[in-house]
Amino acid sequence: MEKLNELRGLIDEIDKKILNLLNERAKIVLEIKNWKKEKDYPVFDPKREKEILERLIKENEGPLPPEAVYGIFKSIMSYLRSLEKDLTVVYLGPEGSFTHQAAVKFFGEGVRFVPLPSVEDIFKVLEEGSDFGVVPIENSLEGTVGVTMDFLAITTNKVIGEVYLDIRHSLLSTEKDIKKIKRVYSHPQALAQCRRWMRQNLPDVEEIPTSSTSYAAMLVLKEKNSAAIASNFAAEIFGLNIMAENIQDAWNNKTRFLVLGKNIPKPTGKDKTSIIFSVKHQAGALYRALRPLHDFGLNMTLIQSRPVPSKPFEYRFFVDFQGHVEDDKVKGALDKIKEECLDFKILGSYPEANDF
User: Fold this and answer.
1) 275 and 350 share a domain?
2) Number of C-beta neighbours around residue 217 at 10 A
3) Does some domain include residue 229?
4) pLDDT, tens digit, for every residue of 111-146?
5) Residues 127 and 159 in one domain
6) How far apart are CA 33 and CA 26, in angstroms?
7) pLDDT tens per residue across span 44-98
8) How many structural domains comprise the chain?
9) Residues 6 or more apart from 257 whose CB is under 8 A from it?
10) What predicted TM-score, i.e. pTM, was given to this entire model?
11) Domain that holds residue 48
């Protein structure tokens, strides 16, 4: 015990130093707040935060793993950023959803998160002046989210960031013994994605579809002998027991989310640009519109067509490629692309998502 108490004493001293340093950092943040106010500079700067996190991960000598460094300093920056302004982030709810988890991953916990029932509501609230929004755009198993693309075509907001999230399902309940489970709630996709595990472990339970995995987690709070298939994040939000983890059949299930805001961030050197456009009904029109990406050496990472609502059987094309609108190569390519388009819109340029 003497050795343990000695080590704990050292931790207490280090914690005090950390606290003092955090308050020193907070004082500098308040000075920056005044400068930004005078210059009308955005409170949230994705480029700056990405640079800080990448530098700290590079400088880290362990034993903390890179993802721990990322998480700790993302939280620090998030809470200290709130000294400058209480930012509001709207997301596709309810609370505890995968979109909520993606929003926390991008912004940290020091902002005001507001769940909304639909993608349309998110775009509407953003147009009315909310600071930021987070929406799903594509899933590695299910494909792209059409409704998000449709509203991106008409919004005045810009894509300012992206988040990749591993979709991991767990069995959550207020119960502690899996033998007591008689009903399992979840979104139909989640139920389908966990079919093999369910057959092997709960073959006789009733499966009840819900509007979302997080709503399923909310339901089991009030119902005995029930469980939900949802994320560990939802378990933390609602205080549920995790009865089994990683019960999904596929291990390559990822969802990509877009972060929406008012201003395109400055280039970081590792960025992505999203555009949307339509072309004439002529042979080779799409080829000619996309060729400048090849000619200027730009790597396309996504192409998806979407029907134009007001023009039956006409289509827009949603394209992502690596590079930033301020890069010379990107400027040259976009000028050439525009020449081949009936309509054209830059949706945003933003730092590529990190690996954590």
Assistant:
1) yes
2) 31
3) yes
4) 999 999 999 999 999 999 999 999 999 988 888 888
5) yes
6) 10
7) 889 999 999 999 999 999 899 999 999 899 999 999 998 888 899 999 989 999 9
8) 4
9) 99, 102, 103, 106, 134, 135, 136, 137, 162, 163, 164, 165
10) 0.89
11) 2-81
